[in-house]
Amino acid sequence: MAQSLIKARLKKGWTQAELARRVGMQQPNIARLEGGNYDRVSLPTLKKVARALGAKIEIRLSA
């Protein structure tokens, strides 16, 4: 997911700070998401980020 997030942000030509501003987050939180750290990240927050990027969230479970 981290690589998809980075790719979508760069496609928009946005910095991490710009994405953070658009979703009401701090830039270090965007950096953590892009680094693959999803501890304490809520689904509503991920939805806001996805919406800002014009993306969708897909959740898959595998065993």
Tell me what you see in this structure.
The chain is built from four helices and no strands. The chain is mainly α. It has one domain: Orthogonal Bundle (434 Repressor (Amino-terminal Domain)). It is globular. The two termini are 19 Å apart.
CATH class: Mainly Alpha
Shape: globular
Instruction: Give the rounded overall mean pLDDT.
Output: 93
Strand content: under 5%
Q: How many discrete structural domains?
A: 1
**What class, by secondary structure content?**
mainly alpha
What order do the helices and strands follow? Answer: HHHH
Number of DSSP E strands: 0
The CATH superfamily turns out to be: lambda repressor-like DNA-binding domains
Measure the end-to-end span. 19 Å
Give the C-alpha Rg: 11 Å
CATH-derived topology: 434 Repressor (Amino-terminal Domain)
Q: What is the second-level CATH architecture?
A: Orthogonal Bundle
Question: What summary fits the major beta sheet?
Answer: none
Helix count, DSSP H or I runs of 4 or more residues: 4
Spans with pLDDT under 50 lasting ≥5 residues? none
The percent range for helix content is 55-70%
Which secondary structure elements does this structure contain, and how are they paired or packed?
Blueprint: H1 2-12, H2 16-23, H3 27-34, H4 43-53
Helix pairs in contact: 2-3, 2-4
